[in-house]
Amino acid sequence: xxxxxxxxxxxxxxxxxxxxxxxxxxxxxxxxxxxxxxxxxxxxxxxxxxxxxxxxxxxxxxxxxxxxxxxxxxxxxxxxxxxxxxxxxxxxxxxxxxxxxxxxxxxxxxxxxxxxxxxxxxxxxxxxxxxxxxxxxxxxxxxxxxxxxxxxxxxxxxxxxxxxxxxxxxxxxxxxxxxxxxxxxxxxxxxxxxxxxxxxxxx
Length: 203
What we know:
mainly alpha, 203 residues
């Protein structure tokens, strides 16, 4: 009996952790989850691809044609650099560049002066009705450029401008007093149109 008790003690139960076979097999057998397609990439990708196509195709075609001579029935197109020489070494380009620079600098200076002056009046003085003054100062910013330009043409055109017609009638003359089509007139119109930008920056 004593020997039997020792034999039973040696066979004491030792608890062990049992893992479900089905779970282990399932983890090994199931493939990795396939990433789900997100439709938002389609909504973004299609417009981007369309814009790239519409922008790059004409640009590449224009660049390609710039290296070719005009094709005619008598002569095929040939590769040449004459188009670039004509475009960038012409004497008219210097005049056009100077006119563009003069217009840009003049309009920027005028808009800065007008916008800064209005901002100083609104912020540093006791001007009455400041809220109304602020709203009136930025009105040119919300007016479309084409409408702003047509309005000044109706006012200061050499032939149909209201200002010229009134002054010509007043002084009994046919001389053109105000001409909006000159460089000064263009600078005046563009400078006034962008003066609200300077006003908002300086306020």
